[in-house]
Specification:
Elements (H helix, E strand, L loop, with lengths): L1 H7 L8 H9 L1 H8 L6 H5 L1 H4 L11 H12 L4 H13 L3 H25 L6 H6 L4 H34 L8 E2 L9 E2 L1 H16 L1 H29 L21 H12 L7 H4 L8 H30 L10 H6 L7 H34 L18 H17 L11 H19 L8 H23 L4 H24 L16 H14 L4 H31 L8 H9 L1
Length: 582
Amino acid sequence: MEVQSSNNGGHSSFSSFSVYLNSLSVTPSRLARRAISVSTSSDEMSRVRAVSGEQMRRTLRWYDLIGLGIGGMVGAGVFVTTGRASRLYAGPSIVVSYAIAGLCALLSAFCYTEFAVHLPVAGGAFSYIRITFGEFPAFFTGANLIMDYVMSNAAVSRSFTAYLGTAFGISTSKWRFVVSGLPNGFNEIDPVAVLVVLAITVIICCSTRESSKVNMIMTAFHIAFIFFVIVMGFLKGNPKNLSLPAKPEHPSGFFPFGAAGVFNGAAMVYLSYIGYDAVSTMAEEVQNPVKDIPVGVSGSVAIVTVLYCLMAVSMSMLLPYDLIDPEAPFSAAFRGSDGWEWVTKVVGIGASFGILTSLLVAMLGQARYMCVIGRSRVVPVWFAQIHPNTSTPVNASTFLGIFTAALALFTDLNVLLNLVSIGTLFVFYMVANALIFRRYVPIGPTKPWPTLSFLTLFSITSLVFTLIWKLAPQGNLKAFMLGSCAVVAIAIVLIFHCVVPQANKPELWGVPFMPWTPCVSIFLNIFLLGSLDAPSYVRFGFFSGLIVLVYLFYGVHASSDAEANGSFGVKDGHVLKELTEV
């Protein structure tokens, strides 16, 4: 197998400390050659995929993907996000916010779908960016996404303890114990969270098909609880609450905060749709990618949109928007009502199932990202190995599972349950850019500057719009500046559409209305990136710095070794000569 040959033979920059030091001296030349070196679809499907030795079994169908998509998106956090967006931004029109956000999520999912159909491998966004923009941009985005997955999964597993306590009427402090010698934020030991993470790790290591079955069962229970809460809301609710606030001095009507409130609410609840990206990492295990992936990804987003809209209407009928508890809208609505207290426990049980499904899907996705990054040699190839009996990336799953469990044991992470932060939004932004680049730049030696210039100008215009929206004071001047930015953005897209022809049209499945669809995704992700708080950017900067260091001190040298040894194709004589001199 290629794993063995690449480990046991050929040149290595890590054979001794002195060789490694000499390798560091040629880092600039290696960066110039490897950082933006692109792979090809055929290589990703054959040579790169063979690095894992065994192959993943194609056992999933479209209904498995729909189940995984729903399980990944409908986490417990929807109970929080709905209340917060309604109380602070949209009021009863939160249902319109969810519909708009669902449409935007569908457009973004289309970008993933085209890549996944064309390139049905487990790497998801990492592979899509690697065949478009090169090795380092792919590693930068993929590694950031993995860190986001790990941190979010650790936070989600700890929140499982809290929701389980709510379901059984037991305080969270009964499940955790405090170690006085540890600093605050790291001193609450949560063994339940660790057990949950380790149990899911075992499940995803055993079989992807069995993992899908477990997800189907838990997702069915979760949706049943959501429908129960929706029905209770319609039965106990009052249609007058859709237009009348509790306090007359507050704005009234179905749109109490106008169009701005609807779009601000859509920006917040859009994060409730994150999770479908993990489905794209299952592409290598799908029986019929051309038919199953579009139905699975798009179908899951459409179903989740309907669920969210029904939940929004139900919640808005339960209470006037100005009485909604932004932290626990459904539980608080029933708490204190005679004969209805038991509904709060049902909400806790349903949220617990949501946590488990979102955790399972996210851990499936993070392992496959790590596996394919290992195939590229930018991290040790050990992560790429597929177990011959289970046909799953056991090494990557186990490593990331233990890492997540360790974080969940000690660390109190203040991350919302389904709020995947800056790393995921950045990856969505990169995938949309990659799709336009791949469609409009001819394959082979060519000048990509028209397309790159368009992407840069459109991103800058979107960023200016976002800054004006967030920072400028209300008034006619703000409206004029926003309108001007919108006109400029539309003009940029129109000029590009008329001047630059499509160079590569997909043969199997393609995103409609190019380049408008990915442009909407680009704009939306920039807009959402502008809504994140300062700590998110601090965390992104910190982990980005670590990722750059890993690439400089390990990744670029390991991939150069693989290139010289012929792992990326025919042996490169120039690289081989350089390694011999080192």
